[in-house]
Write a structure and sequence with these properties.
The structure is a single chain. By secondary structure, the chain is mostly beta strands. It has a seven-stranded antiparallel beta sheet, with no helix packed on it. The protein has a five-stranded mixed beta sheet with strand order 1-14-11-12-13. It contains two helices and 14 strands, in the order E-H-E-E-E-E-E-E-E-E-E-H-E-E-E-E.
Amino acid sequence: MNLKPSIIALGLIAGDTSLTLKDFYTDKVNKISRTETVVTTEVKGKTGNNDYENKFRGKISVFGNYAITANHVVSQDEVVLGVISGQTMTAKIENKVEVSKIDGQELAVVEKNVEKDYAVFDLKKTPELCERYCNTLDIKKSLRKKDIYQGMDIYFLASPAMQVGFYIESKIAKTNVKISKDEKEYNIDFLTDTFIVNGTSGTIVYHRESLLE
């Protein structure tokens, strides 16, 4: 079993019993696709005496009126300058201004948590976006840490190169772990037994058994 850390996925598992067994896999892919979209983040600041600008995209998921993703999808603190003798050299972005958008409209930040690697935005503050993306998923009904167990069946979508429809089934490999990445410590609710797939960051992870009632 591969225990590579899946810090790219949200630490939430949504139990969804609304789908039938008819056209099971197609229904699941379509259901997830309707709850996810692309978020674009623009960063401006300074590195030393130089002005710095960057724009990058990622995946964001919608629970009700809240758009949620991994914090590293919508944040950038450092710039990689290069590698010298195997050591990665970075520069901190000073006076940083960070704006995330969906469909060109700025998102209202509710919370960004670096340690747990999540970011939450309120779509109600942007009525046009809420009309387009808000749904009936209730984050309060998501499975809690105490409900997640090793060996639990899960599934999610990956989006390599921002393409959609890469359906992945996996299992929970380990729960409640601390890992180090880029010299930072993260508290992770769970690891999966799937290799890290670029483009999975910010996705909702679903518990397969909930669909088989």
